[in-house]
């Protein structure tokens, strides 16, 4: 354990009596609605969201990056920080690696993760920046580049990610490219997308039988005029072209403001192509803010669709869940803990929706009562359920308070020097 269990126990002791009373009161209230609180707690306890390895480093913008204290120096430090998040929240059992940032000997990775009680989620390839000693540049694209040799290099990198992933027990590859253009006329839309599809087909052909391939759309940036995989429509076309093991990944921040993301989720579920999520939040665009920090109702509406699909056992429904956000002004460990709990909260609230009543209101075109049904669930303070699930699985009732009391950040700051360079957390 990264943090002494005796400290967590002491912290919990100061809060357990209040929690017990709050849990009983909520349980009594839910019971009147015909909901068994222990069933909801069990589902919440079984729920996990993956932490991105790059998330534990301090992020930045294209203007500046202000390093934090005791930032992880390498993947092994990152895994330790991820283990703190899992120890206190019990909501983040796996880590998603980013290659080449996290490249290391697979047996060392497995040993370290195993010792910390962590597993590996999807592998993420990186063809949006050039690495030291790289033969060909991605300045003008990678999988969709006009030059066949550059495309080949990007394909080889993705195959290398699969190979490393196999060795450490991962079961999915996520491809996100920064390919696009900055000027009208700069790129031929059709030829560029055809290049992308050809490259993606080559990668897909090498995908192990028990693996899934996720492609992630993003409206803009780093390309500012056009992006090759710009929206869920293009993403769906890719998944459809590639085959049964290709799915669409939805990053909540990668859409235009006000886009109805929950409806996109419903469409992808309906056609068996929802691969998973990158959770975050945004005010104007992109994925820079913490999950649930701006619009928790939208997060709830997304989970409402997920629980609906789970409840009616939608065919092929098995989305991967991961956080993907940039922490520029907070301690990344604290942000990731809070965000993991926000995701769990949205899930718990969505589990409270009276689906039978909702279906009736929808059938009768009772718009007011239908939307009130959702609001009733959303307004329920489910914190006692989340906290009790954490307590019973060895976590902290209040993870941020326990983390601060542990002095973990200061301890690692003594052995990890501050670095101002780029690296994790920027994207
Ligand atoms: Mn993402």
Automatic annotation (TrEMBL):
Domain of life: Bacteria
PANTHER family in the record: L-RHAMNOSE ISOMERASE
Gene name as annotated: rhaI
GO molecular function: isomerase activity
UniProt protein name: L-rhamnose catabolism isomerase
Keyword Zinc: no
The keyword Ion transport is annotated on this UniProt entry: no
Keywords per UniProt: Isomerase, Manganese, Metal-binding
InterPro entries: L-rhamnose_isomerase, L_rhamnose_iso, Xyl_isomerase-like_sf
């Amino acid at each position: 354990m990264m943090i002494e269990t005796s400290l967590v126990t002491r912290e919990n002791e100061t809060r357990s009596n209040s929690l017990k009373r709050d849990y009983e009161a909520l349980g009594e209230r839910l019971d009147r609605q015909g909901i068994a609180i222990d069933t909801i707690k069990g589902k919440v306890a079984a729920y996990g969201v993956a932490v991105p390895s790059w998330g534990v480093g301090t992020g930045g913008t294209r203007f500046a990056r202000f390093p934090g204290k005791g930032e992880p120096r390498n993947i092994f430090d990152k895994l330790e920080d991820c283990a703190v998040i899992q120890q206190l929240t019990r909501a983040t059992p796996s880590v998603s690696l980013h290659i080449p940032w996290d490249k290391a000997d697979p047996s060392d990775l497995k040993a370290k993760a195993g010792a910390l009680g962590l597993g590996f989620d999807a592998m993420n390839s990186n063809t949006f920046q050039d690495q030291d000693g790289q033969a060909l540049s991605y300045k003008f694209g990678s999988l969709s580049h006009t030059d066949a040799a550059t495309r080949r290099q990007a394909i080889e990198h993705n195959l290398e990610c699969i190979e490393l992933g196999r060795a450490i027990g991962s079961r999915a590859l996520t491809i996100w490219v920064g390919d696009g253009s900055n000027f009208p006329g700069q790129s031929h839309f059709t030829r560029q997308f055809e290049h992308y599809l050809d490259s993606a087909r080559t990668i897909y052909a090498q995908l192990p039988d028990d693996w899934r391939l996720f492609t992630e759309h993003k409206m803009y940036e780093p390309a500012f005029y056009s992006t090759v995989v710009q929206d869920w429509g293009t993403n769906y076309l890719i998944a459809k072209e590639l085959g049964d093991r290709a799915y669409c990944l939805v990053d909540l921040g990668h859409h235009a403001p006000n886009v109805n993301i929950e409806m996109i989720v419903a469409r992808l579920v309906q056609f068996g192509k929802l691969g998973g999520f990158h959770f975050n939040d945004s005010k104007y665009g992109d994925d820079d803010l913490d999950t649930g920090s701006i619009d928790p109702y939208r997060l709830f509406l997304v989970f409402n669709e997920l629980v609906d699909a789970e409840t009616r056992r939608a065919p092929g429904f098995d989305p991967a869940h991961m956080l993907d956000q940039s922490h520029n002004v907070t301690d990344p460990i604290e942000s990731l803990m809070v965000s993991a709990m926000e995701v769990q909260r949205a899930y718990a609230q969505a589990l409270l929706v009276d689906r039978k009543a909702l279906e009736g209101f929808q059938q009768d075109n009772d718009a007011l009562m239908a939307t009130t049904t959702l609001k009733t669930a959303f307004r329920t303070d489910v914190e006692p359920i989340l906290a009790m699930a954490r307590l019973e699985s060895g976590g902290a009732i209040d993870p941020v308070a326990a983390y601060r009391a542990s002095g973990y950040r200061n301890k690692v700051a003594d052995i990890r020097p501050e670095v101002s360079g780029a690296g994790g957390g920027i994207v």
